[in-house]
């Protein structure tokens, strides 16, 4: 018992140190950072985002996910946008990021901003703003995005693999992963609500349908009727089919995700895991029973908080000329 308490204390102290490190420069961000240096930046970025999402609404989910994946690896520094080189496999090459789409949206927004304010607006800020606009264009909440991030110049696939919570994570693993980034349990359950938009490849969850414990069984936490419906769409070793994460409204940012999870129809193990913790389960039940009474407000707050993770500000980092390449 004493050794367990000591272990818990050491783990807590480690998480607090990591949390302080991840959010250390967050106070340097501010709303309207480009008010004087590039006053029309946010308008131009929003217009560009609209041009793409109006034609392909499913891009919204990927752009939101891209921002999440950026912030959870080295902080919100645009490292997920960098291309691999001859000597380095970048975050883009990591398995969790192979399904990301929408890099062309970020590049287009960067090009549009560079035309009016060259060398001023960072790719990290553009990604944060595009993610916000993508949610808003999907009928979701709108929030003020503090800006002033600078771009990192390091991106490695291994760090993406070790920092991004996988879809098969249990609630303990999820809580630890979020705590390491300075996010609490409420942030975990709120940001999981981002799964209200988008689709997933079958391969991310077919183990729940066909071989959950290695004995050819189905995940008992998954609603049997929903499991049967999913088996009709996803066969074993299916790596090409995509399934809606929020069936019926996967292009609309709403609270329906929580209703689905409450009915044991969350697509991923990480969705189902929200029912394994009292705090997350209570939140799921609250949003499901009140038509998302606080979800929009909560999501906006947690997104701002996530956007503060490990930011580079001041003279650290750089302002990339092209989002996929570090400056020479």
UniProtKB/TrEMBL annotation:
MF (Gene Ontology): heme binding; lactoperoxidase activity; metal ion binding
Localization, UniProt: Secreted
CDD domains attached to this UniProt entry: secretory_peroxidase
Any Pfam family hit: peroxidase
Binding site residues for Ca(2+) 2: 196, 246, 254
Catalytic activity: 2 a phenolic donor + H2O2 = 2 a phenolic radical donor + 2 H2O
Secretion signal, residue range per the UniProt entry: 1-26
Residues of the Plant heme peroxidase family profile domain: 28-327
Sites where the protein binds substrate: 165
Gene Ontology cellular component annotations, sorted alphabetically: extracellular region
SUPFAM superfamilies: Heme-dependent peroxidases
Essential cofactor(s): Ca(2+); heme b
Function recorded in the entry: Removal of H(2)O(2), oxidation of toxic reductants, biosynthesis and degradation of lignin, suberization, auxin catabolism, response to environmental stresses such as wounding, pathogen attack and oxidative stress. These functions might be dependent on each isozyme/isoform in each plant tissue.
Similarity comment: family membership: Belongs to the peroxidase family. Classical plant (class III) peroxidase subfamily. Belongs to the peroxidase family. Ascorbate peroxidase subfamily.
Protein name stated in the entry: Peroxidase
């Amino acid at each position: 018992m004493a050794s367990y308490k000591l272990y818990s204390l050491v783990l807590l102290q480690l998480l607090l140190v990591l949390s302080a490190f991840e959010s250390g420069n967050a106070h340097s961000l501010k709303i309207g950072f480009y008010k004087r240096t590039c006053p029309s930046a946010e308008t131009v970025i929003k217009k560009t985002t609209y041009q793409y999402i109006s034609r392909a609404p499913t891009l919204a989910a990927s752009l939101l996910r891209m921002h999440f994946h950026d912030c959870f690896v080295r902080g919100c520094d645009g490292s997920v946008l960098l291309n691999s080189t001859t000597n380095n496999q970048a975050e883009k090459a990591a398995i969790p990021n192979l399904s990301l789409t929408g890099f062309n949206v970020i590049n287009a927004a960067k090009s549009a901003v560079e035309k009016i304010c060259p060398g001023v607006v960072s790719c990290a800020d553009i990604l944060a703003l595009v993610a916000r606009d993508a949610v808003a264009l999907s009928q979701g909440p709108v929030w003020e995005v503090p800006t002033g991030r600078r771009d990192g110049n390091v991106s490695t696939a291994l760090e993406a693999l070790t920092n991004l919570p996988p879809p098969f994570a249990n609630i303990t693993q999820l809580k630890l992963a979020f705590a390491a980034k300075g996010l609490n349990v409420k942030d975990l359950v709120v940001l999981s609500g981002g799964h209200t938009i988008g689709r997933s490849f079958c391969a991310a969850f077919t183990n729940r349908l066909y071989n959950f414990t290695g004995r050819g069984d189905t995940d008992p936490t998954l609603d049997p009727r929903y499991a049967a419906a999913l088996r009709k769409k996803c066969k074993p070793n299916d790596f090409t089919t995509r399934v809606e994460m929020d069936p019926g409204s996967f292009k609309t940012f709403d609270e329906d995700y929580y209703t689905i999870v409450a009915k044991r129809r969350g697509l991923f193990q990480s969705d189902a895991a929200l029912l394994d913790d009292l705090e997350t389960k209570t939140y799921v039940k609250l949003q499901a029973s009140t038509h998302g009474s606080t979800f929009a407000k909560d999501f906006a707050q947690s997104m701002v908080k996530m956007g503060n993770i490990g930011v580079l500000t001041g003279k650290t980092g750089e302002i990339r000329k092209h989002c996929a390449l570090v400056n020479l």
